[in-house]
Write a structure and sequence with these properties.
Structural class: mainly alpha
Radius of gyration: 14 Å
Helix content: 55-70%
CATH superfamily of one domain: Winged helix-like DNA-binding domain superfamily/Winged helix DNA-binding domain
Strand content: under 5%
Order of helices and strands: HHHHHHH
CATH topology of one domain: Arc Repressor Mutant, subunit A
Largest sheet: none
Number of strands: 0
Length: 114
């Protein structure tokens, strides 16, 4: 698990960072992501989520996946269709390299999204 997410937390060298224009958020400057339904502050995204390119909605869905909700329950909680919730989950898996809800949960725990 640790090696799968290592690339998301590895600091970029200063020269590469300057050339690429990448935004690196130091772990000490981030707080836990907001609970579903709350409006997040810009500094509230977890490091892994920010670097994986997750949208705010995907972070909401990931948090619900990590709490063990079914796709139908996630859809109901967020006032979405089941297929829309499933599409969000598929996009999350692709972005974070997960293959199951267990992998997604491990990612959420690792990067403080719970």
């Amino acid at each position: 698990m640790t090696t799968r997410f290592a690339a998301l937390t590895a600091p970029l060298p200063d020269t590469e960072h300057a050339r690429s224009g990448a935004v690196v958020i130091p772990r000490s400057e981030t707080a836990a992501a907001p609970m579903p339904g709350q409006t997040p502050n810009p500094g509230q995204l977890g490091v892994g989520a920010a670097l994986a390119g997750l949208t705010l909605r995907e972070i909401e869905v990931l948090r619900l996946v990590a709490t063990g909700l079914s796709n139908r329950d996630i859809a109901t909680t967020l006032f979405l269709g089941v297929r829309t919730a499933e599409r969000h989950i598929a996009n999350i898996y692709k972005k974070i390299g997960a293959h199951s809800k267990a992998d997604a949960t491990a990612f959420a725990i690792t990067f403080g999204l719970l």
